[in-house]
Amino acid sequence: MFGFGSLTLIDIVLLVVCVVHAIRTNRIFPWIYVLVFLQAIGCLVYIGMVIVPELVQGRRARQITSTMRGLADPHRSLRQAHRDVGLVGSVDAKRALAEEHFARGHYAEAVAIYKDALTGQFADDTALLSGLARAQFMAGDAAGAEASLNQLHRADPNYSSEDMELLYARALEAQGKDEEALLQYKKLVRYFAGEEARARYGQLLKKLGRDDEAQAVFREILSLLDGAPSRYRRMQRQWGDVAKLNAR
pTM for this structure? Predict the structure, then answer.
C-alpha cells in the first residue's frame, strides 16, 4: 500500500491530474511509477518535463499553422471580418474589419468603416476615434485626423495615449501648423517611450532654421542610444539613423 498521509489536498489533486494526463496521453511507463513513488516531487518533475513542453510546443504549432494558413490564403482574415460584419453587424466586428483594411494599407476603406461605426451610443467611442484618426492620417487627411483627435479629447479629457499625442503633432505638422506642432513635440519628448518624438522634434527644428537647437536634440538621441541596452538600440535604430544623418 502507498501512503498519502503526508500529502495535502492540493498535492493529491495535482497527483490525480498528472496520473490522468499520463494515462490519457499514453505515458504510463515510467511516469506512473515516478508519480506514485515520488508523489509531490514526481508531479513537479512530470509537469516540468512533460506538460510544460507540451503546452509550449502546442502554442508553437498553432503559431506555425496560423502563419502557413496566412501565407496560403492572405485574404482569409479579411473575408472572415467581412462575414462577421454581415452576420453580426456589431461595432466590434466593424472595428475588426477596419483594422484588417488598415493593416493592408486600405486606408480609405478603413476610414469609411470607422465612420460608419461611429454612430448612436458609439459616436464618441475612443477606440473608434483613435482608429479613425490613424486611418485618416495615413490616407492623407491630416485635418481630418486632427479633428478626430480633438473629438476624442472632448469625449474623454482623461484619455491618455502617447501614440495619439504623437499622431496629433504629426497631423499639425502635415498641415503646416509648425509652431503648434513644435510645442506638441516639445511636450511629448519629456515622457514619450522611445526616440521617435525626439527625432521628429529635431527634424522640425531643423526645418524651421533653428539648427543649433536641432543639433542639441540629435546629439542627445545619439548620447542616449550610446549608453542604452542593445535591445533598446535595436528597437530605436530608425531614429538613431535619423540623428546620425542630421547631426554634425
Answer: 0.71
